[in-house]
Amino acid sequence: MDLSGIAALRSVLRIRPFRRLWLVLSVASFGDWIGILATALFAAQQVTGSVAQGSAFSSTIAIRLVPALILGPIAGVMADRFDRRYTMVICDILRFLVYGSIPVVALVSDSGGLTVTWAVIATFIGETITLMWIPAKEAAVPNLIPKGRLEASNQLTLITTYGITPILAALVLAALDGVVRPIGGLPPWASPVQIALYINALSRAATAAVVFFGIKEISAGRRERQQKNAEQSMFRQFVEGWRYIGRTPFVRGLVLGIFGAFAGAGIVVGTARFFTASLGAGDAAFYLLFATLFIGLAIGIGLGPAIVRELSRRRWFGISLVLASGAVAFLSVAFHLSMALFGALFVGAGAGMAFLAGVTLLGGQVDDEVRGRVFAVVQIGARLVLLLAISLAGVLVGVGSSRTVRLGDIAVDISSTRVLLLVAGVVGVWTGVAAFRQMDDKRGVPVLADLLGAIRGRPLSPAEQFTRKGIFVVFEGGEGAGKSTQVTRLSEELLAAGHDVVVTREPGATDVGARIRSLVLSHGEEADTPSPRAEALLYAADRAHHVATVVRPALERGAVVISDRYVDSSLAYQGAGRTLPVQEISWLSSWATGGLKPDLVVLLDVDPGVGLSRVDSRGQGTDRLESESRSFHERVRYAFLDLASADPKRYLVLDAARPADEIAGVVAARFKALMGVADGVPSDPDPTMVVRTGADPEATMVVRAGVNPRPEETVVVRSVGGPDETAVILPAGTPTSSPDVTQVVASPDATQVVAAPDATQVVPSSDATQVVPRAEDEPGGRPPGGERESTP
Ligand SMILES: Nc1ncnc2c1ncn2[C@@H]1O[C@H](COP(=O)(O)OP(=O)(O)O)[C@@H](O)[C@H]1O
Ligand SMILES: Cc1cn([C@H]2C[C@H](O)[C@@H](COP(=O)(O)OP(=O)(O)O)O2)c(=O)[nH]c1=O
To answer: Which HAMAP family match (predicted)?
Structure first.
């Protein structure tokens, strides 16, 4: 755990009521563990014979799961209906009496059978009472601490309950055994197991006292809850609890996910022995696997929050489930112990993180009034699912046969265990995804990028919600590409057609923006020019203000907004041009815009030489960026093309060397397609492009049709001739089964891309280095093979 994690834990412990409750929980959980171990040992000691001992041992453990099913349902109602503090105190006093009776009965009775029977009955009663206690406690915690610290408090509680106290209990029991037994000649009441049982009972008395006298805060808020709940019968309240879960997608997803996780865990536990056997490893491997699982759990719970930092907890929950389940599926194909250990580590880490996220979400986001019931459902359901999964897995594994498959030198055992693990993994992944979908609080924000961003400390923010009635079109491209020209052309056409059009640009569309523009673009003293990061922030500031005051209001109103430059300019100029990390610029921009993305980006692709010479001939001098080096502008150009290829549906890439009229025509057609206008200009019948090969005659290129009735169709163009020969032109929509199409992937060797006049979107292969206008292929144009260097 890093320092911030430890600081978070310390800060929750500074909250007095929580500190006391944590103490109570630690004592209670220590008592629990020592009680579980001691009762089981104790029961086994009372009878002789290994079979009887075995069944005495397991029946006291199994009995702990039964009450959950019978009496659990009302526990939640009680936790919501009555004062949670009194519920806890009364439960603990009763448990003190019941647990205390186990060793006492043993002292007064001579019959081992009777003693064991009572131990089983008492455990059953105690467990039933615990069921009332847990929802009351769980529902109380969120009221004691601020929401922001819930996670740290859960971390602390989970680590204490499942990490520290079981080990401590085992150590104390072992110590008692080591110290007390050798003394010898002790009366029966002083045997180690007896002492352990007294400790268990006394721990209850202690916690009852602390909760009653020390944590009066638990009673707070009781009145309103009681008033609300008293109007309903207990039965109605029970039904209401289930209804609440059913109709709240978030809680439904959470509950589903938790059950899925427990089912997976149950299958892993149920098959573990067979699984280690199938690895050809012995008992030691079995324990090793379990230890690894627990280490994974501890890592997930202890370090998870520090790793994912600000990631949405709802997303974290779903992702963790998928991680854990994916790891279970991986276990199913592991053929070596090292692989199994690796898988087990991730099963544990995923499960631990999912558990922590789940409990925290339940505590923080479920209303106080129903919290007890929701906790009860989760707790009871989880036990039931776990029990079912363990026993079902045990039965199924026993039923199936196993056969060995040889893969080269490695023999893999295909057994029902593996099939079961695979099924569990796949079902778990499905549950994780389903839970994620139901709970996602950042719809539309890519998951992986969000996760990676969060790990680096910069999660993506969800798109700001607003009613977007208009259409947002952006023109991008290098200097002198003809953006202003095309913006004007499109806006004139749309205005003529009666659209509400807002023409705007970045930087400098607003008053604030104009000031920023003069800061970033004017030539000044070296010392006055903003540094690359400052420049990036200034463009982002301009953009934030622009989007908030111009773009969003216009889109809300239903206008067509046409902007000369937007986010891509920052990615290209500040990212690729200034070589700042593009991811960071992207995050900055998405933060500035609140996630607003254009509907269409028209990329006017131009050779920097051509563009800059156009700017020169305008005779207005150059600004700070225009006077950057040629290689700067080259980087900018390819950054734009890369962005377009990453999201081809949103982009219209046009060769800016084409006549302005032609470009305007294609843009207008695409805009109409975007508006869903079926009439008007027929969509480009034959959007094509050509690939010119470099050294490799097999060079290929993927082309997507822009204005095409089936825009999702990909056209594959494959060169046919020698190095200098221009390749085939295929219309979009050509089935890939066409005899001309032999390959569907872009070759990394393609070096020159020649856009045909009708090509509307070009997706360059990663290594393509030049986009050459189609002019040279047209009748009357230069012969194929001639390279266009600069001027149009
Ligand atoms: N398709 C084109 N072919 C040739 N010249 C063009 C074309 N489009 C624009 N121009 C000219 O190039 C110069 C820069 O155009 P402009 O629209 O201002 O580009 P940007 O806004 O991208 O910097 C202008 O003089 C313009 O008349
Ligand atoms: C919007 C934006 C522009 N720029 C640069 C690109 C341009 O060189 C400059 C101004 O763009 P622009 O107004 O298009 O100038 P011009 O009409 O002369 O082409 O700002 C960035 O570097 N980052 C950005 O985010």
So the answer is: Thymidylate_kinase
